[in-house]
Amino acid sequence: MRMNDFIQEHIKSVSGTVLKLIQEGLFSNVTVIINDHEFKSNSLLLASSSDYFRALFSFQQKSVEEPRLEIKCDYVSHVGLSHVMLFINSIGQIHDSIPVEDYQDVYIASSFLQVHYLQKLMSLRLGGTL
């Protein structure tokens, strides 16, 4: 196994474990809510993946301590947010399972939350270049 392959396998393994732990409720210290739909995550993962959450946690100290964060935005759907949260919680490893019909919702949610890598991926997929 080459070093690059080893590193890729390590990243895949760690991201899979992180996702499983969060889904089991372990180490998930934040619940993001939109339209009565709840998504568990970890504040460190959210802040590392999203400029929106990084700013929220940095400038509103109360948000760091608040375990429930409600997103109030008319144009962000729970479908789009669910894919964004899965992308964040899997450290970007799960993105191939996004159905074509959800690309627009995911693009909007990733734009709003400033998850730049997912936003760019959705932009390329919507443009037909990926």
TrEMBL record:
Task: Give the transmembrane region(s).
Answer: none
KW Repeat (keyword) present: yes
Annotated ranges, domain BTB:
28-88
Any signal peptide, and if so, which residues?
none
| InterPro entries named in the record | BTB/POZ_dom, SKP1/BTB/POZ_sf
Q: What keywords would UniProt list here?
A: Kelch repeat, Repeat
Q: Does the keyword Repeat apply?
A: yes
Q: Please give the name of this protein.
A: SJCHGC01486 protein
